[in-house]
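Schema walk-through. Below, the input block comes first and the output block second. Nothing else is stored per chain. Lengths vary across the set, and this one has 346 residues.
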Amino acid sequence: MTMTVEVPADAEPLSFAEAYRRKLADGWESDAAQQGAVAQLSQLLTALRREGKPATGLYLHGPVGRGKSQLLSLFMQHVPGAARRAHMHAFMGEVHARLHGLKGSDPIKLLSKEMAGEFRLLGFDEFYITNIADAMLLGRLFEHLFKEGVVVVATSNWPMEDLYLNGRNRKAFLPFLRLLKQHLNPIDLADGRDYRRREEEGWPLYVLNTDPDEAAVRLAELFERFGGARSDEPQPELPAGLTAKGWRGSVGWFEFAELCRWGIGRQEYLGLVEHADTLVVEGVPAFAEGEADAVLRFVTLIDICYEHHCRVVISAPDYPEALYADGPVVTAYRRAASRLAEMQNW
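--- output ---
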């Protein structure tokens, strides 16, 4: 999801800090790492108000649940001029679609000029790289955006040095990494408090399938609760020939293998959430180390559902953190596991 907002250039300079203090009064718990981030974000807002002077972007990183996205949301409300907030999957989909419609010898340069005319600041939430094709495309686009004077504020679970750390042909990614270091100052939130972790044990949208018969009954109950008790309706025309096990209202019931065991990805999941406000995903497995591709598809699915506020009901043999405890994409998976915990109250 992308969002463009306009804030008057003469907005009160202290409004961001004041809004943060109000959040603290409403129950946000402060820590030293978060306060440091607020100070640097406030300094960036001051720099953005100085017409004609370049401003350096920021890169907020740390484990899941440290308040990075909430800080970005608050910051975006106070940016003077045009600003856009984007999530990785939606932004990449938009870039591919817009490039397809551009003619000329350098469509990426043309797109960067278009985007620079639309926003002065890009808030890039949940930044990460899983394939070299995305890295090369973003690298060229960001190079031109920076030349056009666009400022980037990004959030990520990874320090810059760890982006695409064990990826294929990582050497080709290093110029992009150097570019990020040039234009974004890092802010480490790793030592902060985990604001997302739930203390209570309730997982109302998560079904343990250690007893298959009991799990099947529970999934059917949740399917009827969110989709209605009427008989199954014909499923809408879904992307990539996906077939639901059941469809009611705006609720689709899928086997895990149908969604994550074959070559579909970001665009298909984006198309799926256009039709569904709830997905039932049956039979999420305990992943083996060699199943990184399936894990990444699952992560992408959860990311997109989270970004589009699509409720997810899961059945699995254990709770999320235990399904994939180690492996080459474990950091990305931990973010998805944390999001599944947060989504239980949706």
